[in-house]
Amino acid sequence: MSAKAPETSTSAAETRLTNGSGVAAVLAAGIGAFTLAVLAVATDHIVALQRLMVFYKPTGPLSGVTTASILIWLAVWVGLDLRWRHRTVPGGRTSIIALTLLGLSLMLTFPPFGDLF
To answer: Does residue 74 contact residue 25 with C-beta atoms inside 8 Å?
Structure first.
């Protein structure tokens, strides 16, 4: 008597790779960087927001700006990951959006551009 090994069949749906989690991380990074830049410029010009963003007095409003940006980045990353985890998302278009947000954030933190707002 020979022992028969159980047959395992893998369908195409089971072996399909998804990129949703990775694309969510890339887009969340772009959104987080842009949030940091917008909050940094806004706290420079809006006194009420500047007072609101002081979480730790020795560092001033920078402590609130960075903390808020990190919390928004994490919330966006978790939210997008939960939504896109099992999907294949167009990575090219999403990467272009993330890189555009990163470029805008770099421009906003450069004083001649940031001071225009």
So the answer is: no
According to DSSP, the residues that pair with 60 across neighbouring strands are 56
Q: For the chain, how far is it from start to end, CA to CA, in angstroms?
A: 82
Q: Is the dihedral of CA 58, 60, 66, 72 positive or negative?
A: positive
**Whole-prediction pTM:** 0.80
Structure tokens at 68: 């808020």
State pLDDT tens for residues 53-87.
999 999 999 999 999 999 999 999 999 999 999 99
Q: Domain spans of the chain?
A: 19-114
Euclidean distance between CA atoms 65 and 10, whole angstroms: 49
Q: Are 35 and 68 in contact (CB under 8 A)?
A: yes
Size of the chain, expressed as the number of residues it contains = 117
**Tens-digit pLDDT profile for residues 7-28:** 555 555 556 788 999 999 999 9
